[in-house]
Amino acid sequence: MAEPIRVVVTGAAGQIAYSLLYMIARGEVFGKDQPIVLHLLDIPPMVGVLEGVVMELADCALPLLVEVVPTTDPAVGFKDVSAAFLVGAMPRKEGMERKDLLSANVKIFRTQGQALDKFAKKDVKVLVVGNPANTNALVCSSYAPSIPRENFSAMTRLDQNRATSQIAAKLGVPISAVKNIIIWGNHSSTQYPDAGQGKVTANGAEKSVVDAVNDTAFLQGSFVETVQKRGAAVIAARKMSSAMSAAKAACDHMHDWWNGTAPGQFVSMGVFSDGSYDSPKDVIFSFPVEIKNKQWKIVSGLTLSDFAKTKLSVTGKELQEEKDEALSVLDSNVSNL
Ligand SMILES: NC(=O)c1ccc[n+]([C@@H]2O[C@H](COP(=O)([O-])OP(=O)(O)OC[C@H]3O[C@@H](n4cnc5c(N)ncnc54)[C@H](O)[C@@H]3O)[C@@H](O)[C@H]2O)c1
Ligand SMILES: O=C(O)C[C@H](O)C(=O)O
């Protein structure tokens, strides 16, 4: 057996964490041979709930879970962690956009960036789930200058999974037959779900999704809108934001970051933009990436339609606006934000 690694989940008493902790502790992210010390960070009013979560984790009798560390102290929560799932933040309610959470949530990510900087391992992989995820990841990284920027990411995997599921349903094929559906830009209603590079395998042959679907009106219309508005649709139905699917997506994201992507396959992650595909630089923008040796690389050389370019420009503009707003909320002298 390998040495245990320390993994922190923030918002550990919340609804996403309730599914996520189990999946991590089962070995679905870091592998079935990787023992884990789980750090559960939440805020003081949630201590009682956290105690219940600790009891349930114990009652699961999970062989890989060697220790559970519940805490409300970021110094303890982030101490020596190799992976961080930053879930703890306020969720939106019906009628809100995710960016309406910015002023409430961005300060959490300042504090957690500072704590990561001081206490986490320098090669920690940070996944921000709490909304607005892209801008929170940007803020978090800015307050953790001793950790490489490449180690911060925001979750758009839920959007990718939603989009893949829509395409599989449209084609009447299993999810596993569809790959390389991309989410560009912000985890918000301006994101661009793009099936243009997608591939589907049917009867042993691989084909482009565009050819297989053969319905431009769908691919540029209801497909895009359904994915963009899926989070709001779940809130309208459940009166709470997505949790089970968000936890699954967080596991998929970290799993692929940790273990790599298969040859010819790419996945979407919000990562620091280098200006690829005319996106704004230095915001956290969702790109298709390939991953090897725990390092992601933006897939280059894809040909985008004029329709796609317009969509990328809209979502990029929103990310720049969010960044400006974050700066005004934090009214900080963080020069690298
Ligand atoms: N990126 C995505 O695809 C995606 C998907 C679903 C939800 N989300 C977001 O994830 C976040 C969490 O959602 P949820 O449904 O689990 O919410 P929740 O309200 O059920 O749980 C949030 C938890 O975070 C805790 N918390 C608040 N401030 C904290 C802090 N400073 N440190 C540690 N913990 C803190 C709360 O006490 C609570 O236990 C929300 O912002 C939601 O919008 C993102
Ligand atoms: O939509 C939300 O506010 C929650 C989450 O970001 C989602 O996409 O389901």
Automatic annotation (TrEMBL):
Catalytic activity as recorded in UniProt: (S)-malate + NAD(+) = oxaloacetate + NADH + H(+)
Gene3D superfamilies reported in the protein's UniProt record: Lactate dehydrogenase/glycoside hydrolase, family 4, C-terminal, NAD(P)-binding Rossmann-like Domain
GO BP: any one term: tricarboxylic acid cycle
Active site: 187
Signal peptide: none
Keywords: NAD, Oxidoreductase, Tricarboxylic acid cycle
Transmembrane spans: none
Coiled-coil positions: none
Pfam families in alphabetical order: Ldh_1_C, Ldh_1_N
Lactate/malate dehydrogenase C-terminal domain segment(s): 156-327
Keyword Protein biosynthesis on entry: no
Residues binding NAD(+), per UniProt: 42, 105, 129-131
Binding of substrate, residues: 92, 98, 131, 162
Gene Ontology cellular-component annotations: cytosol
Assigned EC number: 1.1.1.37
Chain ranges of the Lactate/malate dehydrogenase N-terminal domain: 6-152
Entry annotated with the keyword Lyase: no
Gene Ontology molecular function terms on file: L-malate dehydrogenase (NAD+) activity
Similarity field: Belongs to the LDH/MDH superfamily. MDH type 2 family.
HAMAP family to which the protein is assigned, alphabetical: Malate_dehydrog_2 (MF_01517)
Name of the protein in question: Malate dehydrogenase
Lineage: Eukaryota, Metazoa, Ecdysozoa, Arthropoda, Hexapoda
